[in-house]
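Format notes (please read before filing issues)

Several people have asked whether sequences and structure tokens are stored in separate files. They are not. Every record keeps both together, in the order shown below: the sequence lines, then the token lines. Line labels are part of the format and must not be stripped during preprocessing.
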Amino acid sequence: MMPSGPSPMFAAPKRPSLRPTCQHWLVASNEDFYARILQRHAHPFSAWSRLLSTPLLLVPLWTRRWWLYVPIGVWFALNPVITPPADDMSSFATQAILGEESWSRDPTSEPEVLALTGFAGASLVGAMVAAYQHRRVGAAAGTAAFIALTLWEWKLWADRFRRELRVPAA
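Then the structure lines:
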């Protein structure tokens, strides 16, 4: 009985990917728990869904239903666990998260990113205070500022990642 489909003998050889994988870039072993979580944390779906979930942090403050922090906390904790590992590093979000990991080893190496981190944190705290006070405009503006500043950080981290790996910009 002949197998269906092309014979493996005549199949075109697989070409190696020119893009490095996350597994090759990470310093830690793939067996290391931190490296495995970071590979998932760097998946584009994980990164974007965490960023876009930021407004959820305001809901318990606005509604005074503090128990809502439990499912929100579970979401943020499980997010990098339930997504698959990033399979390549071509995504802007993946490059940003891996660049952030590199930057976090020496945050004083790029003081502008450190300043952006402070401003982003302050804008999120401002949004949370505004939500507690039921000030819609302040809550929305603070959240928008946080997301915009975070995206600026992501750009700087992705640039750092590409510099370290010498990957051309997408």
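For reference, the curators noted about this record: Residues 12 and 128 are 56 Å apart (CA to CA). The chain has one domain: 32-165.
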